[in-house]
Amino acid sequence: MPILVTGSLAYDTIMDFPGRFRDHILPDQIHVLNTCFLVDGIAKNFGGCAGNIAYTMRMLAADPVVLSVLGSDGDSYIDYLEKQGIATRHIHRESSAFSSQATIITDKDDNQITAYHNGASDVASDLSIGDVDQSFNLAIIAPTKKTAMIKHARECAERKIPFVFDPGQQLGGFERDDLREMLSLCSFFVVNDYEMKVTEQKTEYSTQELCAMIDTVIITRGAAGSHIITRHGAEQIEVVPCKPQEVQDPTGAGDAYRAGFFSAYAAGKDLAVCGQVGSVAAAYAIEKYGTQNHVFSIKDFEQRYGTNYAS
Fold first, then answer.
1. What pLDDT, in 10s, does the model give residues 33-49?
2. Tens digit of each residue's pLDDT (9 = 90 or more) over 233-290
3. Orientation angle between helical segments 253-266 and 49-59, nearest 10 degrees
4. Are 97 and 72 in contact, with CB atoms under 8 Å apart?
5. In the chain, what are the domain boundaries?
6. Whole-model pTM?
7. Are 189 and 165 contacting, i.e. CB atoms less than 8 angstroms apart?
């Protein structure tokens, strides 16, 4: 069964800073911040959360249906997606704007600073779940314009379609009441450990209160793995990370984890296995610069899974 993936499609510019941000930022002078990071490497890639998730899902033999927007410069992205076997008929083209653009700088400690321009994604709220002409029983609401995320979440709820709420970098834009509404409607809530703290602060809910509302809460913790909690804490699963062969770039690891997790979930796997599949997918992403440059076969993936998680 196809999985609907809503969210951004973007062109990414990724840069590698060989130092540490903390050595160049004076906390007591943050109000007059003026600094420059001299980078070692630069790469331009296809990106955006919806694109990243769909890319890894397709390699895992899942069937993502992307509902998103590209701008007047989107021809190369459309061609690329079609070569990956990802359907593009639900990708709207906005001729009056450029596609979304992200510029990401990563330091020696894998901390990141991102500048993001919405571009064509400003019209994402014009899209509707009802326009999708394929059946699906799971949707992933990944980061894009906040109003579009809210609209698509409500449309899923109205249609009784379980959905994943994945606010990511858009979390800061949600007001308390909007965020509380999204959490009351979703079946899965996926955040990293920092975003979980922000969620608690914004909603004034504790982790326990959130877990009482949502079927499954997934907290990713980078090199520490991930934590999966089912409603009311009935089941708590610690997933140890899959160790990458080398660390090149953490950008997109979270999207790869989500792709792995929900590809496995759609295939009927239990939550522990879903988390492990997500972890293996994230490891592949970390080993390459960019968010869609990792490549694996199902055979290679299964071998690595067995090496890391054989019981």
1. 888 999 988 888 999 99
2. 899 999 999 999 998 888 899 999 999 999 999 999 999 999 999 999 999 999 998 8
3. 50
4. yes
5. 3-24+38-305
6. 0.91
7. yes
Q: In the sheet where 100-106 sits, what is the strand order?
A: 41-47, 10-16, 100-106, 112-117
The encoded tokens of residue 10 equal: 């973007």
**Structure tokens that stand for 192 in this block:** 């990293």
pLDDT in tens, 5-27: 999 999 999 898 999 999 988 88
* pLDDT score recorded for residue 250: 86
Say how far apart CA 295 and CA 300 lie, in whole Å.
Answer: 10
- What is the C-alpha separation between 262 and 266, in angstroms, rounded? 6
Choose the CATH number for 3-24+38-305 among 3.30.565.10, 3.40.1190.20, 3.40.50.300, 3.40.640.10: 3.40.1190.20
Q: Where are the beta strands (DSSP E) in the chain?
A: 3-6, 10-16, 41-47, 64-71, 91-94, 100-106, 112-117, 139-141, 163-165, 188-192, 216-220, 226-230, 236-239
The whole-angstrom separation of Cα 25 and Cα 36 is 10
DSSP string covering 220-254: E-GGG-EEEEEGGGS-EEEEPPPPPSS-S--TTHH
Which tokens go with 12? Answer: 């990414």
**Tokens 């943050």, residue?**
30
Look up residue 3 and give its two tokens. Answer: 């999985």
